[in-house]
Write a structure and sequence with these properties.
The chain is an alpha+beta fold. It has six helices and 17 strands.
């Protein structure tokens, strides 16, 4: 049994202990699906990525993404963290632009320097709303939170994983929310969604424009600290409604404060309507995995 290089990093974090933790198995060749799922379940992080040989022309690196319970075609914090890990470990040269291969296809990555630190941003798969029949009762149970809703009606969007999106009146409503995890789990299981994300606009004078919380109880993740795919869906929904916060298609999200891991996601919707998500990555653990 050969040891496999292993990293643990915090993504969308300005310091270790913030953002969302990610497990990174750099030498995953030879692991089958069951082994990768077992490792992700044993680590009990919201996601673990596994680096495998590239299979698509034009890709610089390839990953597979697993939660403790299932594989995802795309997820935001694993994708941003994987790009950082590929650069830091020398798997790919730092040319300022990369292409990631994952279950959702080929995704462009941009790399910028701030002194010695890298800032990574990645273009998320195109998000779209999903029409769901016979979910109104489950949805009513999941969002019956006695808090005022925002302008956008609750809806299911997907960009690989599916997310129920619920806008609340403002950031204070989001932060004070006590979710009904059983009702959210029933809704997401019935509609093949990964979770439910609530969001609200921050007040003036903050270092962020939007506050987000995301709940995935059916995947053994009651609340996810910082969630790239959900934020990309939210950006797409707000863009479609011509209600983007921030300025010129750019804004900053605060997520994870309620879990003691206050992260920051930098979001941009470009001129073509494509959503980019990015931020900082912090190394925490470097070692090897025997499996």
């Amino acid at each position: 049994m050969s040891p496999r290089r292993y990293l643990q990093v915090d993504v969308f974090a300005d310091r270790p202990g913030a953002g969302n933790a990610l497990g990174v198995v750099l030498d995953a060749e030879g692991l089958d699906d069951a082994a990768m799922q077992a490792i992700a379940g044993w680590l009990q992080l919201s996601e673990t990525v596994f680096f495998l040989p590239v299979s698509a022309e034009g890709a610089d690196y390839r990953i597979r993404i697993f939660t403790p319970c299932s594989e995802l075609p795309f997820a935001g914090h694993p994708s941003v963290g994987a790009a950082w890990a590929a650069l830091e470990t020398g798997l790919v040269p730092d040319t300022g632009a990369l292409v990631q291969e994952c279950g959702a296809g080929l995704l462009p990555v941009q790399v910028a320097r701030q002194g010695a630190a890298r800032r990574i941003r990645l273009r998320a798969p195109q998000a779209s709303p999903v029409t769901v029949d016979d979910a109104q009762a489950l949805l009513a149970d999941a969002v019956s939170i006695a808090l005022p809703l925002g302008a956008l009606p609750p809806a299911l969007w997907q960009n690989g994983p599916g997310w129920w999106l619920v806008e609340l009146r403002d950031a204070d409503c989001v932060r004070s929310l006590t979710p009904d995890l059983d009702a959210i789990a029933a809704l997401t299981r019935a509609t093949a969604a990964v979770g439910l994300a609530v969001f609200g606009r921050a007040g003036h004078g903050q270092d962020h424009d939007l506050v987000v919380r995301a709940f995935c109880p059916a995947d053994n993740i009651p609340e996810d600290p910082v969630t790239g795919s959900a934020n990309a869906c939210i950006a797409a929904a707000l863009h479609a409604a011509d209600r983007l916060p921030g300025h010129a298609g750019r804004y900053v999200v605060s997520q994870g404060r309620e879990l003691g891991r206050d992260g920051r996601i930098e979001v941009q919707v470009d001129a073509e309507g494509q959503v980019w998500i990015g931020g900082q990555v912090q190394p925490v653990i470097q070692g090897s995995l025997a499996w």
